[in-house]
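Q: I'm building a small set of examples for a reading group on sequence design. Run inverse folding on the following structure and report the sequence directly after it, with nothing in between.
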């Protein structure tokens, strides 16, 4: 059935002079109908309009403006930035090539690169000049989209990136091993396994509490690390109470997080978001999800 609808959409677009690969139409259609439960008629309308907008954007005659990340304060602008790749997240959508964070001396911004843009892959800790990216605004923050008109050039220099808090909105889908009560080396504060510190061997330890988990926003996944104070609040018990009363803290954490939507705010360190603030929200409604995928992420 999906295949027939895809062909219908492809024919409609062809009549308007728009040529689109079958897999691009199908991936977007399946996302709306199968993952978001959108009615067929509405999904067809959304996908058709998306590709018509795509062609319009590609034909816009606009000279990109070279800017610093902190100066991106308007959506729909064509910009050029020079920045360092800080993080690459695993993408769950087959049409997305890469998604991550790029930063310069003034700030950090999220970027999305689609497979159909045919751009080279970016690598963490490398510096690039990204020409003709398109700015967008979603969930209170600006981001950039790398489309088929974007040009990427790697340059041989380093950038000292300004550190700032970022936010990630999604559902908690997994609690990693190494969560709950752990023990840390009294000399280096690293977590130890079976009383053995990788640096100092068998040592005395201090107890600690943390959560290592995975969040999913429907397009990418993000590893998060929640430290003791926030974990105690989620577990509704202090570390001392958990130890003395032998509380099943992992069960409490799973009940508090798994399957629920949160906004996590904090600092990006390696592949982890070190969470400083965590706020539960209702599930992202369909109209916002559609806007995110089909309008905000124009190719």
């Amino acid at each position: 059935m999906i295949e027939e609808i895809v062909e219908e959409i492809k024919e409609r677009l062809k009549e308007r002079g728009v040529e689109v690969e079958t897999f691009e139409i199908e991936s977007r259609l399946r996302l709306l109908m199968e993952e978001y439960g959108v009615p067929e008629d509405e999904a067809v309308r959304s996908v058709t309009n998306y590709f018509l907008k795509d062609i319009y954007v590609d034909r816009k005659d606009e000279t990109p403006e070279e800017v610093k990340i902190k100066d991106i304060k308007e959506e729909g602008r064509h910009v050029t930035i020079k920045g360092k790749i800080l993080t690459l997240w695993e993408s769950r959508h087959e049409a997305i090539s890469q998604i991550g964070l790029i930063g310069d001396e003034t700030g950090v911004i999220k970027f999305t690169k689609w497979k159909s843009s045919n751009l080279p892959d970016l690598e963490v800790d490398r510096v690039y000049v990204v020409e003709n990216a398109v700015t967008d605004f979603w969930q209170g923050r600006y981001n950039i989209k790398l489309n088929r008109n974007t040009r990427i050039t790697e340059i041989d220099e380093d950038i000292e990136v300004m550190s700032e808090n970022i936010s990630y909105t999604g559902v908690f889908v997994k609690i990693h091993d190494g969560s709950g009560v752990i023990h840390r080396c009294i000399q280096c504060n690293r977590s130890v396994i079976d009383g053995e510190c990788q640096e100092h061997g068998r040592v005395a330890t201090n107890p600690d509490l943390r959560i290592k988990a995975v969040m999913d926003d429907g397009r990418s996944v993000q590893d998060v690390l929640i430290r003791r104070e926030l974990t105690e609040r989620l577990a509704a018990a202090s570390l001392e109470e958990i130890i003395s009363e032998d509380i099943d803290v992992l069960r409490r954490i799973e009940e508090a997080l798994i399957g629920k939507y949160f906004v996590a705010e904090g600092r990006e360190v390696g592949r982890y978001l070190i969470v400083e603030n965590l706020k539960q929200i209702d599930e992202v409604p369909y109209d916002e999800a559609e806007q995110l995928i089909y309008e905000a992420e124009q190719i």
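The chain has three domains: 2-58, 65-164, 169-182+208-285.
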